[in-house]
Design a protein that fits this description.
heterodimer, A: 1253 residues, mainly alpha, 6 domains, 3-stranded antiparallel beta sheet, two-stranded antiparallel sheet, 61% helix
Chain lengths: 1253, 86
């Protein structure tokens, strides 16, 4: 906030501000003394010079920035950027332009203006009354619609009801009658007034310029009133009505004077404020019509004012209103403070006036069809007559904007507003409103800083003129003219400020002083002249130049009849016009208020009346259309202007309350603002959320992919800035202060929760394969959260996630995701997915019911619930589509990441229980199959060859009656196998994660690889981590500069704890090994049933009680069926082998199986047979051995099965060595060896990680 | 000329003295009024600054409150099941 001194000095020298008077300091310190502490707090600095210059510097730099964008985003003490205009004006009192004491002080100057002042006050009262009536008429809404229709049942009380209705309506009618009466009386009073002052023979001073203005304004009000009343009557009728009133009196000459005054003011651009200009433009045609009621009169008028001048004014206006955005305003703002303020006012006036004119233009040219954007033909089409007509209609109505269009069709509000603005025009309008509002705000903010400077400048101008210039004139030009020099000295007397020098109180005396002495007499005083002084000065100048006769031909300063030299005339003219500027500059706040008031853009009473509806929908409202435009285009340049339209609402509410004085209008505006603000906040949230989500998605997208992609640009997000919006804690809307930031934060939190919920629901309605997509989308969401958290104080992501997962409780280890995963595993994954051992993937079996179709179809969410922009969503859907049809390692990574260490054990436990229950359920079925086998099964004989073997096997496997049991057992085995394989996948993933973690923590824990591949501790008692921190602590503690090393000691202790924790985490067990041990324990309960202990102690090779016999039979029949193309056998995948081999291995039957399995024996027989046959037929190798024909398929399937079984066994041997399993063996010598231990050979499956022993 | 004869200023000297006094009085008045306005301006800015600082404080308290609520729920879930921790 504090401005560097150099800058202040630069500002000082640039603008040569002389603000060093002692008074200045005293004045500022007057404020300072009461709040000495705030200086210290640096809320804002209060040094008067620095403050003035500093903020002026800011003002200027703001102005410069203004030339680039609609908002100079500067930050005040409250760190809120200025993206809104003035919400409320402190005071709109016009104490300079309107005399607060009704010019009663004019009499003090003894200028015999009593009559004139009385007339002015009378006219001003009439204007005030007229304005009130006009607002009454404008806001008048038909109350007939509100009256109830008379039902048949109430016919008897008809008369009473009508009486009631009459009484209701009577009140309204009486008001209208009153208006009419008032209008008539006001018109006649105006006419009388004009008549009184148009008689040159009456010895009355006046009319003065203020009087002219009052006349014009009253005429304006009357015209407006009349037009409001007869909204559908054509214009000539109205004119004629006035004509009757005015032609009764002879007022032509004053009308002519007024016309000349209007034309000159317009031509010289003398009206500082646009409302004044519009008044002149509105009244001028009326005056012209009134003054040209007869041929003779019009001749005399056109003698004074050439027709061309009038036409030029109108033409200029029309063409001006049609041209688009103006770029001329951006010229450098230079000069001193007064000039800047004047310039600022002029700019504001020009811009706001332009919006009015543009608005009127739009209203007069409704869009015929909603889709067509074509504009009406350019104005060059119109001939002058039409332009004139156009002009009158347009500006006749500007005050209310309800422009009556007499083009023969009724226009609706929709046509004039909703469809009438193209995107470009909305943008331009929004920017222009932004310029107006922010310049207005800026000027208002430096009100108290510049006002003294302004007063002083005005004082100096006036004093310079009356003391210096007038003196020169008195001594030269007017020396001989007694009358005129009297006027001049009157001017001096009534306004000169001779600063404490009583000897110079006498102007006559003073005029004789030497120039040098006079120069030194006045120095600036920061006091402005009063309204009465300016009023009198203007009057006297008029008197001077016109010689007391305004009705002379030529303009106010155009006549040379007064005998005043041209240069003096020029000076007088300049000063005359300056005087009228002074008033508006003195009314600083009120002028800004008028110039930045754009509330008219909301009002639509005229169209409500003509459309016969109660209110238009919000889409038709211009402010909302602008808000909508910003939210729809999402233009980075416009986003910060999104609150500007709410200034329009502020303005119109202010207008409704203070000018129109109608409560119901305010209520309507309030309701609309409520609605549109809610909508805005919601849309804004969506935009912000979508933007950051797109950014996150774009960041997480593989950059090498987007680089190679032909249209990779579409995955980049156009940058947007929301900083300004995030900082808005005080948005002023209709007098309320709204914390927009907290609203956004609140809704953002809600949006995140909704999004998480949506993603979880989506996962819940799909199958297990959707887990990768879920994880992807949650990752994007997390990154989005991270980037938004940089600006807003959002709830923590992990808490939100666990809240939505229903996982908050400390004692619950399940969550929505984990229960869904388990649910899916149980009902869909284990029964319906089959394993492919080679690809390490599960895929859905063909016959597996696609039960996702039975579920409720996933609700399609909005784009911002996925990845923000459409392109990114498509890209991510493409990626996740790759993972949708299988379950493998990537899915397992996603599962581990989503469940985390908290919920994962629950799943593992549930899965193990599932295995155990499946085994238990399998026991009776296995027993049934065992019973169907013969008591004793021998080895297959080689004699019969393959065919013989097949026959024998078929004889053994008499399970035809039990095919159902067989299928069930196969399915059970498949589920057990799938579960086990799932565990092994989980194991692989967990190992990988553990390894990563190990690699990260090893250097800190001082772990180094030993000789035998084991991990060694480099240091015996402590780790590098603790050493480092304890060394740092010691160094800090020993240093005398550190007064309180306790926190470092705590840190060192914490380091020890951390290294202990990490150390204990190193040797985490293997999930697969645990699962195998668990299965083994579950099997032990059924050991007696599935494994017959040989009575002799030797291997009983003929027994059929062992499990491997059943599995062998199942495998054989399954293989046989699987190659039979005629029977559509359900594919069970590789998990059956996993389950069978695991069970056999854990029961200690692996070697029995490898020896006595039917398929293995079958393969052996085929091999032998093949060898023998090929031996016999070595000469005829090319001839395929026909005895093997028909068996290739089954042999191939058996080989495959054997390979698979071997793989499983070797894996099992590696992961679960059965050291303490005991069996019997026979030594090569033939001696039996009881209770020998298995020796485990080194696994062939060496790719699996070894168990650390 | 409309203001001929006795229509001019009665006694220019008296009027001049009155005007001079008026200037001085008004200087005093405008000094006072300007400084009242400055005071008011300051109060407005002070209010704005305070409001936004309070708003940011409120925001932080809100966050803490919500976090506390979540933690309370977690703790209550633990205290209602003491058996789990034994």
């Amino acid at each position: 906030m504090a401005i560097p001194v150099e800058e202040a000095i630069a500002a000082l020298s640039t603008f040569s501000l002389e603000f060093k008077s002692l008074k200045e300091h005293r004045a500022a310190h007057f404020v300072l003394l009461d709040f000495p502490n705030f200086n210290h707090l640096d809320l804002f600095s209060f040094d008067p010079n620095e403050m003035l210059n500093g903020s002026f510097q800011r003002t200027v730099s703001k102005c410069r920035r203004m030339c680039r964008g609609p908002h100079g985003l500067t930050y005040r003490g409250d760190e809120q950027p200025d993206v809104q205009g003035l919400a409320v004006l402190l005071s709109s009192e016009r104490y300079a332009t309107n005399s607060p004491i009704e010019y009663s002080d004019v009499a003090a100057y003894r200028l015999s203006l009593g009559e004139d002042t009385k007339a002015i006050n009378q006219l001003n009262t009439l204007i005030q009354e007229g304005k009130e009536m006009a607002s009454l008429l404008y806001t008048y809404r038909s109350c007939v619609k509100a009256l109830p229709q008379l039902p048949d049942s109430m016919k008897h009380s008809q008369a009473d009801l009508y009486l009631e209705t009459y009484q209701v309506l009577d009140l309204e009618m009486s008001r209208l009658r009153e208006i009419q009466r008032w209008q008539a009386s006001a018109a006649s009073k105006l006419a009388a007034d004009m008549q009184r002052f148009s008689r040159p023979e009456r010895l009355v001073n006046g009319p003065t310029i203020t009087h002219f203005w009052s006349m014009l304004k009253l005429l304006d009000v009357l015209v407006q009133l009349d037009h409001l009343k007869n909204a559908k009557a054509s214009i000539p009728n109205d004119f004629s009505w006035y004509k009757r009133t005015f032609t009764q009196n002879s007022v032509e000459d004053i009308l002519q004077v007024l016309i000349v005054f209007c034309v000159e003011s317009l031509e010289l651009d003398f009206a500082l404020l646009f409302p004044e200009r519009h008044t002149l433009l509105r009244v001028l045609p009326v005056l012209v019509v009134l003054a040209t009621s007869s041929e003779k009169e019009s001749e005399s008028l056109y003698k004074r004012v050439k027709m061309n001048r009038l036409l030029n004014i109108f033409k200029m206006i029309i063409l001006k209103s049609s041209d688009g955005a103006d770029n001329d305003w951006s010229r450098d703002i230079k000069g001193n403070m007064y000039d800047i303020v004047v310039e600022g006012f002029q700019l504001l006036s020009r811009w706001t006036g332009r919006i009015w004119e543009q608005c009127a233009w739009k209203f007069s040219r409704p869009c015929k069809e909603p889709p067509s954007d074509s504009q009406h033909g350019s104005t060059t089409f119109f001939d002058y007559e039409k332009v004139f007509l156009m002009f009158t209609t347009q500006f006749y109505w500007l005050w209310t904007l309800d422009i009556l269009i007499d083009y023969g069709h009724l226009t609706t509000y929709m046509q004039v507003v909703r469809w009438n603005y193209t995107g470009e025009e909305r943008r331009a309008l929004l920017e222009l409103i932004g310029y107006i509002k922010s310049i207005g705000l800026m000027m208002q903010r430096c009100d108290t800083l510049v006002s003294e400077a302004l007063w002083e400048t005005i004082h100096m101008e006036v004093q310079d003129f009356v003391q210096d210039k007038l003196d020169t004139m008195l001594r030269t030009t007017f020396r001989k003219k007694k009358d005129l020099s009297r006027i001049l000295s009157d001017m001096r007397t009534l306004s000169a400020d001779w600063m404490a020098n009583t000897s110079k109180g006498d102007p006559e005396h003073n005029s004789l002083e030497t120039e040098e002495m006079r120069q030194s007499t006045f120095y600036p005083r920061p006091v402005a002249p009063t309204a009465a002084q300016i009023h009198c000065l203007q009057f006297l100048i008029c008197e001077l130049v016109s010689g007391g006769n305004m009705r002379k031909p030529g303009g106010l300063f155009g006549n040379s009849g007064s005998g005043i030299p041209v240069e003096d005339l020029k000076q007088l003219e300049t000063f005359f016009y300056k005087l009228s500027f002074f008033l508006h500059i003195l009314d600083y706040t009120a002028t800004i208020g008028t110039l930045t008031d754009l509330g008219f853009l909301w009002f639509r009473e005229f169209y409500l009346e003509s459309s016969r509806v109660i209110q238009f929908p919000i889409e038709c409202s211009l402010p909302w259309m602008l808000v909508e435009h910003v939210t729809e285009t999402q233009d980075a340049g416009l986003l910060e202007s999104v609150l500007i339209p709410f200034d329009l609402y502020n303005d119109s509410a202010q207008h409704a309350l203070t000018c129109l004085k109608q409560r119901f209008l305010y209520d309507e505006i309030e309701a609309e603002v409520d609605l549109s603000f809610d909508l805005l906040v919601e849309k804004l949230n969506e935009i912000i959320f979508t933007y950051y989500k797109s950014c996150a998605a774009s960041t997480l997208l593989d950059s090498s992919f987007t680089y190679l992609c032909d249209d990779g640009e579409k995955y980049f997000v156009k940058p947007l800035r929301f900083d300004a919006i995030f900082k808005l804690r005080r948005v002023m809307v209709l007098g309320r202060t709204i914390d927009l930031r907290s609203l956004i934060t609140q809704r953002m939190n809600k949006l995140f929760r909704e999004n998480i919920d949506f993603l979880l629901e989506r996962f819940e309605s799909g199958d297990l394969c959707g887990v990768v997509e879920l994880q992807q989308l949650l990752d994007i969401l997390e990154l989005t959260h991270q980037s938004i958290s940089k600006f807003l104080e959002l709830d923590s992501y992990s808490l939100m996630l666990s809240e939505m997962q229903e996982n908050l409780s400390l004692v619950s280890y399940s969550s929505r995701i984990s229960s869904q995963i388990w649910n899916e595993m149980q009902t869909d994954f284990l029964p319906n997915f089959i394993l492919c051992n080679t690809t390490q993937r599960f895929v859905r079996s063909l016959k597996g019911t696609h039960h996702s179709s039975q579920r409720s179809s996933a609700s399609t969410g909005k784009a911002y619930f996925y990845c923000g922009s459409h392109d990114l969503t498509m890209a991510y859907q493409g990626i996740s589509g790759l993972y949708r049809d299988f379950f493998g390692i990537p899915h397992m990574f996603a599962v581990v990441k989503l469940l985390g260490s908290r919920s994962l054990p629950g799943i593992i436990r549930a899965l193990l229980d599932h295995i155990s229950s499946k085994i238990t359920a399998m026991v009776p079925k296995i027993t049934a199959l065992q019973e169907a086998l013969p008591k004793s099964i021998g080895l297959l004989s080689f004699d019969g060859g393959i065919a013989g073997c097949q026959k024998i096997v078929h004889e053994i496997l008499t399970w035809e009656a039990k095919s159902e049991v067989k299928t069930e057992v196969l399915h059970d085995l498949k589920e057990i196998g799938s579960a086990l394989y799932w565990m092994s996948l989980l194991d692989i993933v967990l190992r990988q994660i553990d390894t990563t973690q190990f690699m990260q923590s090893a250097p800190w824990l001082g772990l180094i690889p030993g000789n035998d591949g084991q991990v060694k501790h480099a240091y015996s008692d402590n780790t590098p981590f603790t050493t480092l921190l304890s060394a740092a602590t010691n160094a800090v503690a020993s240093s005398p500069a550190c007064p309180n090393p306790s926190s470092f000691l705590v840190m060192a202790k914490q380091a020890e704890a951390a290294s202990l924790l990490y150390k204990s985490n190193l040797n985490s067990g293997s999930v697969l090994e645990y699962a195998l041990a668990f299965t083994s324990a579950a099997l032990d309960r059924h050991y007696s049933k599935w494994s017959a202990t040989p009575k002799t102690g030797f291997i009983d090779i003929t027994t059929s009680k062992d499990f491997y016999r059943v599995f062998s039979g199942l495998q054989y029949s399954y293989l046989e069926e699987s190659i039979n193309p005629s029977r559509k056998q359900e594919m069970l995948g590789d998990s059956v082998a996993w389950a069978g081999c695991t069970i056999m291995y854990l029961l200690g039957q692996q070697q029995h199986f490898e020896l006595f399995d039917f398929s293995y024996q079958f393969l052996n027989v085929a091999e032998v047979e093949n060898a023998t046959v090929s031996l016999y037929q070595y000469s005829d190798r090319n001839k395929s051995p026909n005895f093997l024909q028909g068996y290739e398929g089954i042999l191939e399937a058996m080989r495959k099965a054997r390979r698979l079984n071997n793989h499983v066994f070797s894996m099992l041997r590696a992961r679960c060595p059965l050291e303490d399993k005991i069996a019997c063996a026979i030594k090569p010598s033939g001696a039996p060896l009881h209770r020998m231990k298995f020796t485990n050979t080194v696994s062939a499956f060496e790719t699996l990680p070894q168990r650390a022993t | 000329m409309a203001r001929a004869g006795g229509h001019g200023m009665g006694n220019p000297v008296n009027v001049g003295i009155a005007v001079q006094a008026d200037w001085e009085n008004r200087e005093f008045i405008s000094n006072i009024s300007l400084n009242v306005r400055r005071l008011f301006d300051f109060l407005l800015r002070f209010e704005a600054t305070t409001k936004s600082k309070l708003a940011s404080l409120n925001e932080k308290l809100d966050i803490l409150e919500r976090k506390l609520e979540v933690l309370e729920v977690q703790v209550s879930s633990a205290t209602t099941n003491p058996s789990v921790f034994n």
